[in-house]
Write a structure and sequence with these properties.
The chain is an alpha/beta fold. The protein folds into 2 domains: 154 residues, 3-Layer(aba) Sandwich (Leucine Aminopeptidase, subunit E, domain 1), CATH 3.40.220; 325 residues, Zn peptidases (Aminopeptidase). It has 13 helices and 21 strands. Strands 8, 9, 10, 11, 12, 15, 16, 17 and 19 form a 9-stranded mixed β-sheet that branches. A hairpin with a 5-residue loop joins β13 and β14. α2 packs parallel to α3, α3 runs parallel beside α4 and α4 runs antiparallel to α8. The longest helix is centred in the middle third of the chain and has 25 residues. The protein starts with a strand and ends with a helix. Bound molecules: ligand BES and zinc ion (ZN) (2 copies). The site of ligand BES has 16 residues, from α10. Ligand BES binds next to α10.
Length: 496
């Protein structure tokens, strides 16, 4: 994890990061160096010779005079102001290109404090390398840039310093999410997941930070009636868990939210075994759980005045002689019965248990949010970079979408059409776990809706595509676990 600093005045660093933009259709270029005055003439000549375009995600390195290296990161078309997310991504792309570097100064447009915050956040988020499991090749893989300095005229502004601390918290807890996702299921069983979160809980400050943690094991889950978590986890030698974190602020409580995250540490599909091709990506099926747990710790680290109750149902979905069979009927916590027609639709079963449990607390909630890599249909509908939001309360959804506009994460509202609900009817149980194949993402949402009290504002975030990047790295997003949803959850709480 890098150190984040801010500076103004004379530039002293190994590497300087500058913005590059296109000024017209004929290949015109300009340098955006924010508050740092530079002599750009000769640089622009070489950049032209090199065929630079200033396009987004273009990164060009040139030798410098007063600094060892200058790195240009594309901001797209020249503009008076750049969207925060453009700056975040450009800074992140630069950081990713700086693995093995000790320190770099980012001189990008920072017209105001929020722009500065976006640059710091992007630069920090891009400085991520996962090498925990490299053995003999470890030394071939360089570490992320160690010290990131943002060049800005706001250097002595106390608010700017606070925003840098915030950016560091966002990056640290996003890295926790990414690490958990990237850790293979051999090393991230449900039990191992709880231990890693318990360690992070401690380093966030534990009880002193207003946090509490508790874990139910398979025996307790069984005796207390968590039929969804047990039914999904029973095929595996690695037994399921239900992890609970609560955060109570020391300051007056503005609101109370519950977070619930899908924590399938590996989804083979169970007896509805998935095809081998691509199954390895199912190590990411705990991304929702990782996001809600890390977001809760981040909210505590930022001392935000909102109480959070977080639930992570954790299980490994495996085929075996103990596994749940198609046609088995399970009883969700609270009493609803579900006919398991497809054991690969397991996320909704563990979530149903946890969603019901989350509403059984003594404090009245202002909202509940579940986060899950729930359906392949989400990826078909929205692709790999846009997540879906479904809701029973349009105001809450708008509030969340406004938060995503600030966080820079791409979310899109999806409906829960009433007419699809009857496809979940079962001839033998209260409900079946699958319904109409068409609109599969919405059917999954409608399944979960059955477990939410009508008057409780609820959001269902399906992050199946964006949680795990199997394509190329881009902006501040690496290959593998991305950390999606954490920033928007934090932004929602900040706006509460
Ligand atoms: N974990 C998968 C969903 C998924 C697919 C996540 C692709 C990330 C990328 C989920 O448990 C699943 O298998 N869903 C089934 C549901 C179906 C059987 C109704 C699906 O989407 O195919
Ligand atoms: Zn599945
Ligand atoms: Zn799954």
């Amino acid at each position: 994890m890098s150190t984040l600093k801010i500076t103004e005045g004379a530039l002293k660093d190994e590497v300087l990061v500058l913005g590059l933009v296109s000024t017209n259709e004929k290949g015109g270029l300009a340098i955006e160096s924010g508050d740092l005055a530079i002599d750009s003439k000769s640089l622009l000549v070489s950049l032209n010779d090199m065929g630079a375009t200033g396009a987004v995600d273009e990164v060009i390195k040139v030798p410098g005079n007063s600094v060892r290296l200058i790195l240009f990161t594309g901001l797209g078309k020249k503009s008076k102001i750049y969207p925060h997310e453009t700056l975040r991504r450009a800074a992140g792309a630069a950081s990713r290109a700086l693995d093995g570097t000790n320190s770099a100064t980012f001189a990008l447009p920072t017209n105001d404090l929020l722009t500065l915050s976006a640059v710091a956040e992007g630069a920090a988020l891009g400085a991520y390398v996962f090498s925990d499991f490299r053995g003999s090749t470890k030394s071939d893989h360089k570490a992320a840039v160690k010290t990131i300095t943002v060049y800005s005229k706001f250097a002595s502004n106390p608010e700017a310093k606070a925003l840098l601390v915030r950016a560091k918290v966002i990056a640290d807890y996003t890295f926790l999410v990414r690490d958990l996702i990237n850790t293979p299921p051999s090393h991230l069983t449900p039990d191992a997941f709880t231990k890693k979160i318990a360690a992070a809980f401690k380093s966030t400050g534990g009880l002193k930070a207003g946090l509490k943690i508790s874990i139910l094991d398979e025996k307790q889950l069984k005796s207390q009636g968590f039929g969804g978590i047990i039914g999904v986890g029973q095929g595996s030698a690695n037994p399921p868990r239900l992890l609970h974190i609560s955060y109570t602020p020391k300051t007056p409580i503005k609101k109370r939210f519950a977070f619930v995250g899908k924590g399938i540490t590996f989804d083979t599909g169970g007896l509805a075994l998935k095809p081998a091709l691509g199954m390895e990506a199912m190590k990411s099926d705990m991304s929702g759980a990782a996001a809600v747990c890390a977001a809760t710790l981040a909210i505590a680290a930022l001392k935000l005045p909102v109480a959070i109750e977080t639930w992570a149902p954790l299980a490994e979905n495996m085929p075996s002689d103990k596994a749940t069979r198609p046609s088995d009927i399970i009883t969700i916590f609270g009493g609803k019965t579900v006919e398991v027609l497809n054991p690969d639709a397991e996320g909704r079963l563990v979530l149903a248990d946890a969603i019901v449990k989350a509403q059984a607390g003594k404090n009245k909630l202002d909202g509940i949010i579940d986060v899950a890599t729930l359906t392949g249909a989400q990826v078909v509908a929205l692709g790999t970079r846009t997540s879906a939001v479904m809701t029973n309360n349009e105001d809450f959804s708008h509030e969340f979408l406004a938060a995503t506009a600030r966080s820079g994460e791409q979310f899109w509202p999806m409906p829960l059409p009433e007419e699809l609900r009857e496809s979940l009817d079962s001839p033998v149980a209260d409900m079946a776990n699958i319904g109409d194949r068409n609109g599969g993402m919405l059917v999954a949402g409608l399944f979960l809706k059955e477990f939410v009290q009508q008057d409780l504002p609820w959001l269902h975030l399906d992050i199946a595509g964006p949680a795990f990047n199997t394509a190329k790295a881009h902006g501040y997003t690496p290959v593998g676990g991305t950390g999606i949803a954490l920033r928007s959850l934090v932004a929602l709480v900040e706006g509460a």
